[in-house]
């Protein structure tokens, strides 16, 4: 269960114009700007739900996932996940969650994938039997086979993403946070990853929160959609609620989302 109430997050960023003179001025006087990444965000996600978290670039999606994962602390507001505050009880919290950041890696770059998994086993204190069972299942379902012997840096993006997803599931987390998990994947890999996530939800009742710019991910994986723009939650509804915004009868999901972004001016 994920309960977020009135959450705010700001970032302070230094600003200066280009040029030598401006650089010298900045040595004595730094100008900064406050960015409101999240403003008064509230939502509730029940166990076993699959929720798409969508919005344009810079809307606040990754900041939310980072707070839910315990990596970032909000300025104020509450967030309780399975009875815990993520950033305060990180060690226990991370045992409940699996996280995939499509643009980052949790695998050690120069060692074979299996060595990264062994390290994760120690970090998450996964009992040997659970680890062996999960590894066998994930290797089969995600066709990891030979990949396990290969260092992460020698894998293609799609191969590495399959290994990343397995890494995030080795400790049987109840909740999965996926930040653009299909970015850069070919059609076959995308379908495989989507099917795998759907199965994971069906078989283990895993709660899934997914951010993506690929609307086919949303169609395939989300029963419910949260729309965020400029740090504000604008819509919380089903896929059919999104359809109310379709500009024409035969509009694609991409066209509907683009209309939605225009309607909300985000
Ligand atoms: N560490 C940081 N320092 C300063 N500003 C940040 C930081 N992280 C995020 N921001 C700002 O907060 C806002 C929200 O960023 P966030 O990464 O959450 O957006 P997003 O919805 O995930 O975007 P995208 O779809 O492009 O990945 C943006 O304006 C971004 O520039």
From TrEMBL:
Keywords: ATP-binding, Nucleotide-binding, Transport. PROSITE patterns: ABC_TRANSPORTER_2 (PS50893). Pfam families: ABC_tran (PF00005). Residues 2-255 form the ABC transporter domain. The keyword ATP-binding applies. The keyword NAD does not apply. GO terms for molecular function: ATP binding; ATP hydrolysis activity. Transmembrane segments: none annotated. InterPro entries: AAA+_ATPase, ABC_transporter-like_ATP-bd, ABC_transporter_ATP-binding, P-loop_NTPase. This is ABC transporter. It comes from Lacrimispora algidixylanolytica.
């Amino acid at each position: 269960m994920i309960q977020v109430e009135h959450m705010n997050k700001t970032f302070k960023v230094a600003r200066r114009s280009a040029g030598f003179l401006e650089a010298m001025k900045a040595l004595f006087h730094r100008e900064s700007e406050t960015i409101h990444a999240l403003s008064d965000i509230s939502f509730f996600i029940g166990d076993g739900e699959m929720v798409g978290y969508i919005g344009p670039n810079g809307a606040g999606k990754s900041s939310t996932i980072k707070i839910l994962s315990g990596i970032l602390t909000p300025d104020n507001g509450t967030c309780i996940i399975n009875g815990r505050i993520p950033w305060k009880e990180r060690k226990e919290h991370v045992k409940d969650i699996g996280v995939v950041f499509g643009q980052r890696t949790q695998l050690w770059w120069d060692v074979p994938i299996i060595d990264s998994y062994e390290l994760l086993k120690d970090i998450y204190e996964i009992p040997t039997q659970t680890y062996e069972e999960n590894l066998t299942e994930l290797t089969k379902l995600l066709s990891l086979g030979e990949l396990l012997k290969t260092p992460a840096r020698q894998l293609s993006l799609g191969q590495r993403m399959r290994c990343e997803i397995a890494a995030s599931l080795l400790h049987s987390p109840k909740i999965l946070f996926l930040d653009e998990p299909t970015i850069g994947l070919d059609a076959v890999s995308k379908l495989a990853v989507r099917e795998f996530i759907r199965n994971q939800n069906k078989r283990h009742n895993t709660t899934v929160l997914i951010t993506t710019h690929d609307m086919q991910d949303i169609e395939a994986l989300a029963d419910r959609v949260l729309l965020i723009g400029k740090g504000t939650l604008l819509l919380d509804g089903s896929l059919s609620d999104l359809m109310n915004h379709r500009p024409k009868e035969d509009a694609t999901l991409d066209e509907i989302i683009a209309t939605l972004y225009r309607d909300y001016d985000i």
